[in-house]
Amino acid sequence: MRITVSERAPFAILQSGPESAMVDRALRVLGPATEDEERPVLIVPAGLALWPGEFVTAREAVALRDAYGAISERRIIPLSLTLDRYGGLVITVRGGLRLLLGPQSDLAQKLTLVDAILAQVVHGQRRIAAIDVRAPGTPVVVYR
Description:
alpha/beta, Rossmann fold, nine-stranded mixed β-sheet, 2 helices, 9 strands, 30% strand
């Protein structure tokens, strides 16, 4: 018989209302979140039990974890991920730029569009506050 023990690695901070906890990729609560951690923040509705050792199985938390994987593959590093009141994905990246992505069904197409928009605007003098690609056929760029 062989037993392998491995330490769980912190992945993100899960915030549910005023409570927050450090979780691993399986969404197992590792313990309370600390201020000095630089991890993405997954913001879910209030009311989740964030007890150490428990797995978080809320649909919203799972959706945000999965979205983080797809987004980070595109070299977009989110600071926070949440769902709007309609269930659409909203991401905040460094500098306060918000990406309004909407439903995750066509996330790859929307991320390609965000990449193209950022490539066009990055060299300009104006700063972007938000990119709204909830309707990919008519993207909206909001400047500061």
